């Protein structure tokens, strides 16, 4: 009986140690993602200046744009604007905008930048 109890204790100890290792890996991965997420708006801002500034007002200190396109701040503050709605809009071709064929990382960065203007 004592041997069975020792085996159960050893199994539990191994399980606890395995859970600790798994949690450490999860925390490490989450912490690695934080700097990238924090940089997304700044990367999106650079993309906006490069690709969108000709038509949209993309920066708070930018005076005007050359088109009747809404400013990024106006887009960000619309009631229905969400990360999902922006991603969907940027994922499809539009008749009113050039098709830049943004990849998912570029879209995510641009969406993060637009939403940061709220």
Give a description of the structure.
With 118 residues, this protein is mainly α. The chain has one domain: Orthogonal Bundle (Cytochrome Bc1 Complex, Chain D, domain 2), CATH 1.10.760. Helices cover 66% and strands 0% of the residues. It contains 4 helices and no strands. The radius of gyration is 24 Å and the shape is elongated. The model is unreliable at 26-38 (pLDDT under 50).
Provide the low-confidence segments as ranges.
Answer: 26-38
Give the topology string: H per helix, E per strand: HHHH
CATH topology call: Cytochrome Bc1 Complex, Chain D, domain 2
Overall SS class:
mainly alpha
**Approximately how much helix is present in the residues?**
55-70%
Q: Tell me the distance between the termini.
A: 66 Å
* Gross geometry: elongated
Number of strands: 0
Radius of gyration: 24 Å
Mean pLDDT: 78
Report the total helices.
4
Strand residue percentage:
under 5%
Which CATH top level class fits?
Mainly Alpha
CATH architecture: Orthogonal Bundle
Largest sheet: number of strands, sense, barrel closure: none
Q: What's the topology here?
A:
Elements (H helix, E strand, L loop, with lengths): L1 H50 L20 H6 L5 H9 L12 H13 L2
Helix pairs in contact: 1-4, 3-4
How do you describe this structure in short?
The protein is mainly α.
């Amino acid at each position: 009986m004592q041997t069975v109890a020792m085996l159960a204790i050893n199994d539990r100890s191994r399980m606890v140690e395995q859970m600790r290792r798994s949690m450490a890996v999860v925390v490490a991965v989450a912490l690695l993602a934080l700097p990238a997420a924090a940089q997304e708006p700044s990367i999106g801002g650079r993309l906006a200046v490069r690709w969108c500034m000709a038509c949209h007002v993309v920066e708070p200190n930018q005076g005007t744009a050359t088109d009747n396109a809404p400013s990024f701040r106006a887009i960000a503050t619309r009631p229905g604007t969400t990360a999902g709605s922006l991603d969907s809009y940027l994922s499809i071709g539009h008749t009113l905008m050039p098709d830049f064929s943004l990849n998912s990382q570029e879209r995510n960065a641009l969406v993060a930048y637009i939403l940061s203007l709220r």
